[in-house]
Design a protein that fits this description.
320 residues, mainly alpha, Peroxidase, domain 1, Peroxidase, domain 2, 2 domains, two-stranded antiparallel sheet, 2 strands, globular, binds protoporphyrin IX containing FE, binds 2-acetamido-2-deoxy-beta-D-glucopyranose
């Protein structure tokens, strides 16, 4: 019986379902259930960005840090409690990830129009797309239908699943590979550093100790980032020194002239295997946009909870 044609069909069906679990996400998942969700999210993101353009960068990064730890499942949004340790205080997130209050505000608006329907994980994904578009970058159709986790993983978030800014090229390629993302995806996604800011503590070593940095640029950045650890750790600098609030390909132009802010930025153009990709993106904004979009969709398909898995949280900060 185990070898009957029917059981082969059943097996094939199971593999198909598992193998294409991300295909369960779709652009029109909410078309009937909550047709106004995209407009509602966009209007809140639009007014937040009008007030502070950096928030767009923060929302884009929030999505990345959510997706890398056990998939895009809203796990990063869970608050710590006396009996639960979430991901918020993990090294890459603590005092660094922003945008939680805005996600709360959006969630309340969405709950008001379609209670219990739209996941926090999807809201994060939609805000990332809206942010890129509003800041001058490309549009894409966001796939939705993710559900929210009932777990988080502090250890994973804290220990290298999200690469640190000290990463070398080998580290970057392998941490992205572990998420099913190629070296090219990694270089394209790093272009997110065309917007937003970094704290001194994240780039101090690069501006004082590395040799693959333009000397004038290093001096300028040193002015607001003291050498001594503990001094000015939270002082901010723009990741893209030219157009820090516009989503464009200047990030790659900066790398070509050794003006990447993070060590992990400059290793992408440092005589290694990704130099040619950086060069292409620096010369061809269209190529960057289309590879960035493809990689964002791929990252967004990362192990989503679907169907009856997880839940639709009422409040993004806690389980129902
Ligand atoms: C390639 C590996 C990456 C590393 C090592 C890295 C590291 C960092 C670091 C250290 C910061 C500054 C954090 C701080 O000092 O508080 C930062 C900021 C940022 N990252 Fe990345 N990142 C990477 C990839 C990505 C990806 C894939 C995205 C999104 C697609 C992204 C989006 C951002 C944005 C937008 C900011 C600015 C956030 C803000 O201003 O609030 N990064 N990143
Ligand atoms: C997170 O940051 C706070 C405030 O700066 C600090 O007191 C705390 O120890 C940090 N948490 C972890 C887990 O490192
Ligand atoms: C959390 O992440 C760590 C490190 O990636 C992993 O070893 C562990 O199995 C994960 N825990 C759960 C409950 O998934
Ligand atoms: C990259 O860093 C890892 C440690 O994180 C180290 O083991 C490895 O040798 C480094 N690779 C290169 C090519 O420098
Ligand atoms: C520069 O590198 C040395 C040796 O690794 C280290 O002790 C020092 O803290 C680094 N300086 C900065 C500003 O990161």
């Amino acid at each position: 019986m185990a070898h009957s044609p029917n059981s082969y069909v059943a097996l094939a069906l199971i593999f198909l379902l598992i193998g294409t679990s991300s295909a369960q996400l779709s652009e029109n998942f909410y078309s009937n259930k909550c047709p106004k969700v995209f407009d509602t999210v966009k209007s809140v993101v639009r007014s937040a960005v009008a007030k502070e353009r950096r928030i767009g960068a923060s929302l884009l990064r929030l999505f990345f840090h959510d997706c890398f730890v056990d998939g895009c499942d809203g796990s990063i949004l869970l608050d710590d409690t006396s009996s639960f340790k979430g991901e918020k205080t993990a090294a890459p997130n603590n005092n660094s990830v922003r945008g939680y209050e805005l996600i709360d505000a959006i969630k309340s608006k969405v709950e008001a129009i379609c209670p219990g329907v739209v996941s926090c994980a999807d809201i994060v994904a939609i805000t990332a797309r809206d942010s890129v578009l509003i800041l001058g970058g490309p549009f894409w159709n966001v796939k939705v239908g993710r559900r929210d986790s009932r777990t988080a993983n502090f250890t994973a978030a804290n220990t290298g699943v999200i690469p640190p800014p000290t990463s070398n090229l080998t580290n970057l390629i392998s941490t992205f590979q572990a998420q099913g993302l190629s070296a090219k995806d990694m270089v394209a996604l790093s272009g997110a550093h065309t917007i937003g800011k970094s704290r001194c503590t994240s780039f101090r070593n690069h501006i004082y100790n590395d040799s693959n940095i333009d000397n004038t640029f290093a001096k300028i950045r040193q002015n607001n980032c003291p050498k001594k650890s503990g001094l000015g750790d939270n002082n901010l600098a723009n990741l893209d020194f030219r157009t820090p609030t516009y989503f464009d390909n200047n990030y790659y132009k900066n790398l070509i002239i050794k003006r990447g802010l993070l060590h992990s930025d400059q290793v992408l153009f440092n005589g290694g295997s990704t130099d040619s990709i950086v060069k292409t993106y620096s010369q061809n904004d269209k190529a960057f946009d289309s590879d960035f979009v493809a990689a964002m969709i791929k990252m967004g398909n990362n192990k989503p909870l679907i169907g009856k898995q997880g839940e639709i949280r009422k409040n993004c900060r806690r389980f129902n």
